[in-house]
C-alpha cells in the first residue's frame, strides 16, 4: 500500500512537471514574436516582474509569513535563473536552433553527475544510458537543418547547459529539508530575475510596455501566467518533492512540445527523423524515470533500515 501511495505521489509530481515542460516548449514561439517586437531584456523584465505581482496577489488570499530563508533562498534562486537565461538567450541568438537544442539538452546528463557529487549518491549506469538516449533523440528531433560549424553561440549554450544543471541541483539542495513557503520562494525568484533584466535594459523595458499591440500583450500574458507563474511555481514545488535528475529528464520532453506547437501554429513540418527522435526521447525518458524511482526507493529503504550507530564518547 505504501508503495502504491509512493507511486501515486510520484505520478502527481511528474504530471505537474510535464505540464511545465509543455508550456515552456510553447513559450519559444511566443518569445520569438515578442523579441522581434522589442527588447529581449525588456520582455523578460516585464514577464518576470508581472509574474511576481500576480503571485503576490494570489498569496494575499492565503498569506504566509515571509521568513528570512524564503527571502534569501528565493532571491538567490532568482539570480541563478537570470544568469542561466542570459547565457541561453544570447547563445540561441548566435547559433543555430539545431545546435542550441542539442547542446542545451546535455543538461539531462550533467544534472545527475552534479547531483551525484552533491548528494554522494550515484544513480545506476543505466540511467546515464537513458539520459544519453534522450539527448540523441533531441538531436534527431531538432536536426532537420543539420548541425552547423561550432561558434561562440555554441560555447554559450554549453555554458547554459552546465549552469542549468548546476541551478537545478543547487535549487534542490537549498530547499531540501527546510520549512519554506513555495509561493514565497517563487515570488522572490521571479521578482529578483525581473529586476535584474530591468536594470540591464530599463529603456527597452519601458519602450516594450508602451509599444506592444494587443496581440503582443496577449502573448506576454501567456508567458506570464502559464510559462512563469505556473511553470516556475511548479518547478519550485516539484524540486522539493523529487530529485533534480528526475526533473532534468522530464524537462527533456520540452523540445517535443516546442516542435508540436511550431507544427500547429508555426507552419512547420515533422520529418521521419523527427518522429523517431520524439519517440526516442519519450522511450529513454520513461526508462530513465523508472530507474531513478527504483534507485530513490532503494536508498530510502536502506536509510530507514540501517542501524543507528551509538554516539562516541
UniProtKB/TrEMBL annotation:
A GO-annotated cellular component: plasma membrane
Membrane topology: Multi-pass membrane protein
The entry's keywords: Cell membrane, Membrane, Transmembrane, Transmembrane helix
Name listed for the protein in its UniProt record: Unannotated protein
SUPFAM superfamilies: Multidrug resistance efflux transporter EmrE (SSF103481)
Spans through the membrane: 12-31, 37-57, 69-87, 93-114, 126-143, 179-197, 217-235, 271-289
UniProt key word Transmembrane: yes
Compartments it resides in: Cell membrane
Classification via Pfam families: EamA
Domain EamA residue range list: 13-142, 152-284
Keyword Transmembrane carried by entry: yes
Main location: membrane
Native species: freshwater metagenome
